[in-house]
Design goal:
Distance between the termini: 40 Å
Structural class: mainly beta
Mean pLDDT: 96
Largest sheet: 7 strands, mixed
Strand content: 35-45%
Number of helices: 2
Helix content: under 10%
CATH superfamily: Jelly Rolls
Shape: globular
Oligomer: single chain
Low-confidence stretches: none
């Protein structure tokens, strides 16, 4: 298991970053590596985001010096969504079958968590978001059908989409993690616009389901000082609480969002009028 540390950045500093520096601070370029758990520990609300891709090996999450505890989930909870082939998660001896687009919530206190593939030629790709927790809630699978559905957008603004809320108060209890997957209708390319910030929570976006020549232009920064990062398939962007987080694709794509911070109110947003963007 690898765990890279990313430190928080002040918005005033980010104004002066080059493209290379923006990507180094905020973009997670490589998430899914064969038989590895590849994680990034961000000091933005201490979220951990990463990919777990078992092919031939059984992979396990361990706690290192970075976490300062005996087990990974001693003081953490996590949400997982499988964007690959069928797999299995073994949680303290109980095996859970994980199909494509299945989600899983792991509550604080889990001791042993293992990940494995069903078919090595079509391995699972477990995308994980984890954040600090103060209370143990029940771990469980959340299938795509069980996720809470919210339909939003308008064809005129090219943003018709379905928000699938997996780790959300409408589905289950958590400490501070909220996580889900948004699918766009054919012909829609904006994941959200007008955009917003939420000073009380940070967010991570994973973009996937993209063709080889598709890119997403992820908009970030303060509303009056916007920047962009060009994102390839299966790459993620760390979005601090002061930053907008909106994207537009050159073709179809899907994205997973995960949030943690002061509350778990999905609608707690500070909307930005398009005319105020710079």
């Amino acid at each position: 298991m690898s765990l890279e540390t990313r430190y928080s950045n002040h918005p005033e500093d980010s104004k002066y970053y080059t493209t290379e520096e923006l990507r180094a601070h905020y973009l997670i370029e490589k998430l899914f590596i064969e038989d590895q758990a590849t994680l990034v520990y961000s000091h933005n609300d201490r979220i951990i985001a990463g990919g777990i891709m078992p092919v031939k090996e059984i992979l396990e999450l361990n706690a290192g010096k970075e976490l300062g505890v005996k087990t990974f989930f001693e003081r953490r909870e996590a949400g997982i969504i499988n964007i690959g082939g069928p797999g299995k998660i073994t949680l303290d001896g109980t095996i859970y079958e994980m199909g494509p687009r299945d989600g899983f919530y792991i509550g604080m206190g889990a001791k042993e968590v293992k990940f494995e593939s069903v078919d090595g030629s079509n391995p699972p790709k477990f995308y994980i978001n984890s954040c600090p927790a103060h209370q143990a809630f029940q771990s469980r699978i959340i299938t795509l059908e069980q996720a809470n559905k919210v339909d939003l957008g308008d064809p005129k603004s090219l943003n018709v989409r379905t928000i699938n809320q997996y780790v959300h108060p409408a589905v289950l209890e958590t400490c501070q993690l909220v996580m889900g997957m948004t699918t766009l209708k054919e012909g829609s390319v904006w994941n959200t616009m007008p955009c917003h910030t939420h000073e009380r929570r940070m967010e991570v976006y994973l973009y996937f389901d993209m063709s080889e020549d598709t890119r997403v232009f992820h908009l970030m920064g303060q509303p009056s000082e916007t920047r962009h990062i060009v994102v390839d398939n299966e790459q993620a962007v760390i979005s601090p609480s002061w930053s907008i987080h909106s994207g537009v694709g050159t073709g179809s794509y899907t994205f997973i969002w995960g949030m943690c911070g002061e509350n778990i109110e999905f609608t707690d947003m500070d909307h930005v009028d398009i005319k105020d963007l710079r």
